[in-house]
Amino acid sequence: MPRIFHVFAILLLIGSAVYVYKVKYDTMALNSEVVRLNKQIAIEQDRIIVLKAQWQGLNQPDRLQKIADLNPDLVPIGTQQIIRWQDIPDRAAPVDTIGDKLSTLGLVDPSPAINSTKPTTRKP
Questions:
Q1: Can you say how many angstroms the Cα of residue 63 is from the centroid of all Cα atoms in its chain?
Q2: Global pTM?
Q3: Residue 97: what are its φ and ψ, rounded to 5°?
Q4: Rounded CA gap, 22 and 12, in Å?
């Protein structure tokens, strides 16, 4: 009986050692992935800084004024061009022209439109 216990203990010890090494190498792989991602983040942050600097260069007032001077058709915005939100007209309701034509020909059962609230009935 003690030999079986010793064999079981040795197998348990070997299994736990294998598990510890697996966890160690998995952790090392994940650590290297974190380092790689941190480097990639730093590169992307540098790119963002460069793009912001380029954007600032493109939005310089002197540069924009030169471009505006080259295009004489451009005029400043007038107060008559600014309207209130309430003055914008509502969208027209969607119309199913193909379905309407088919129903007038009697080829399909007229079905309610997507936004329609009236139920339609079929004429005999």
A1: 33
A2: 0.47
A3: -70, -40
A4: 15
As given in the structure block, the two tokens for residue 58 are 């493109």
Which value, to the nearest 10 degrees, does the dihedral of the CA atoms of residues 60, 66, 72, 75 take? 20
Structure tokens at 16: 């736990």
123, part of any domain? no
* Number of separate domains in the chain: 1
- How far apart CA 40 and CA 46 sit, in angstroms, is 10
| Euclidean distance between CA atoms 119 and 114, whole angstroms | 11
Residues 6+ apart with CB under 8 A from 96: 113
Inter-CA distances, 43 with 14, 32, 77, 92, Å: 44, 17, 41, 49
Instruction: Count each helix (H run) and each strand (E run) in the chain, helices first.
Output: 3, 0
Residue-level length of the chain: 124
Structure tokens at 70: 């080259």
- What Rg do the C-alpha atoms of the chain give, in angstroms? 37
Q: Tell me: the pLDDT tens digits for 43-98?
A: 999 999 999 999 999 999 999 889 888 988 888 888 888 888 888 888 888 888 88
| Cα separation, 49 vs 118, whole angstroms | 57
